[in-house]
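Human: I'm a chemist; would you kindly supply sequence and structure tokens for a protein?

Assistant:
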Amino acid sequence: MHILLIHQAFTALDEPGGTRHHELARHLREKGHQVTIIASPISYLTGKKQGKRQRKQTDDMGVTIIRSYTLPVLHRSFVWRIVSFLSFMVSSFINGLFIHNVDLVWGTTPPIFQAPTAWLLARLKGCPFLLEVRDLWPAFAIAVGVLKNKTLIRLSRWLERFLYKHADQVIVNSPGFMDHVKTRGAKNVTLIPNGADPEMFDPLADGMAFKNKHGLTGQFVVVYAGAHGLSNDLGIVLEAAELLQKKDRIRLVLIGSGKDKPHLQALTHKRQLENILFLPPVPKSEMAQVLAGADACLAILKPIELYKTTYPNKVFDYMAAGRPVILAIDGVIRQVVEAAQAGVYVPPGQPAALAQAIELLARHPEKSREMGQHGRNMVERRYARIIFAEEFSTLLETIWSRNG
């Protein structure tokens, strides 16, 4: 089967960001399927071009990646962000027309604008359209206050419903999304959750190389790895760091990039927070070394009701690395962490509670290591990427058979 994925925010294993799609694509290649991915050359995380990328390349597993023109203005403003999405929407459609013998088109959202491209290409090629819902857009954008224009909201909601109703198959990466997509017209909905590849991480690895490199020797290191954006609520982390200033052994390391990073760095300098270290994003292939140097890991989102539906990828990576999770996110992901006894829950938006949780883990390193091992065990049993990749492969073959 030849599978075509349209994904502006696609991240390869040698790039910073979530690599769910590259991992799934490589597994599909192992099963004998052909996979072509149309992606942007612009990093969704940094808004900059991903190095000297060839327009078309094939990885060592035979996955073909085509980089389609995208206007490099992602982080300039909300309006320019939409223009960037539209530029990829058009260019990916044109590139998709020249890819032949496609048996299934796989679209993913957000950004939602690439999904209509996938739907139209599927219809023109006479093959099934699979829609993957990774975030509840536009609901999240409305809740966080990014999308305010009533006309745009109305049009976005119409497009969302159109895609759900016209998809031959819908998949979601969190059980919290099921009711939302079904009540808006989705049929044939399947859960393929986020997870992690335990083989990428060694929970017993010596993290001293990372600590020594960044002057963290002898410190209790809390790592946050991911986007520095409006939803991530990293201002709360700065407030917690201020409360922990007198705790000489505790350091908070924020790894990644995003629109809010310069502002967060400026605030850190203004408040003279010497216990926070900002580092640039690292490729997934190097994340094992980073997490080996962590004593605990942080996942945080704004205290918005809809965020209770999310299954953040980073939480599963933290667990796979055998590190205790400090979880400032309520809802379905809290159920996972607490069922595994893999970390400490902190109510979102409460810096004092966050500081208290960090200090608690720092005072009890043996308990922290025990939580980390519990998380690792849970990933191996229930959230290993290979389990979901097998389910995904079987689902695609069923869709293919169902549609002749």
In short: The CA atoms of residues 58 and 64 lie 4 Å apart. The chain has two domains: 2-195+384-402, 198-382. The chain has a mean pLDDT of 94. The first helix runs from residue 20 to 30.
